[in-house]
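Support request, please re-run this one:
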Amino acid sequence: MSLECKKVFIKSKDRVLVDICFKIEKSLALVGESGSGKSLTLKALLGLIPSSLHYEVDCSAPFELKRGESVSFVPQNPFTALSPLTKIKDQFFHNEAGEFLKMVKLDSEILKRFPPELSGGQLQRVVIAMAISTDPKLILLDEPTTALDLKTTKSILKLLKNLQNELNFSMLFVTHDIDSAKELCEDIVVLKNGKVVEEGKMQEVLKKPKNPYTKALIEAGFSNKEFRK
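Re-run finished. Output below.
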């Protein structure tokens, strides 16, 4: 299901932080260096912008943009996403939690355990299971593999792609990691200083980037290291 954001605008008292538009068809990567506005954009879609900032969001979709129902969120760090003192089963808001754990390749026995007893990869799978349990139309991913090693990152990206094909949701993937973006998404938007400097089909942009900033971002390495000026 497509989502068209005609305007995402965020400003502080003295300057504009984000002023962009974009369209999510199936899977869109929002890529840029630290401070480019990608995470702020995601927070605006979730309604999580601090009161010190002014923001406007104008998006249209064949579903209501409501977190916890049609929209799910997978945060950057699975270690802080869950309460460490509460068993996994008591953090699931769904009666069939075990079925969703099976969908992310985890045993339902994990429901009896506490988050600190799980690995980072297991925790991120739990968070993804929670995200899909609401039957979302859109999943927002805020650098969900940053805290994971390379092998686990690849398995999480493969899992997300398989789940998308099975459940038919759209994805907005916020990341600084071009390699992960390439693995997961069909389209890409490159941000710099809160502005779109390049957008298009992932393979086309990677093969023939038009903007020098995009070219530098790609040449920075296809690695997990964040690109900086």
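The chain has one domain: 3-219. Helices lie at 38-46, 78-81, 97-103, 120-132, 150-167, 178-184, 202-207, 212-219.
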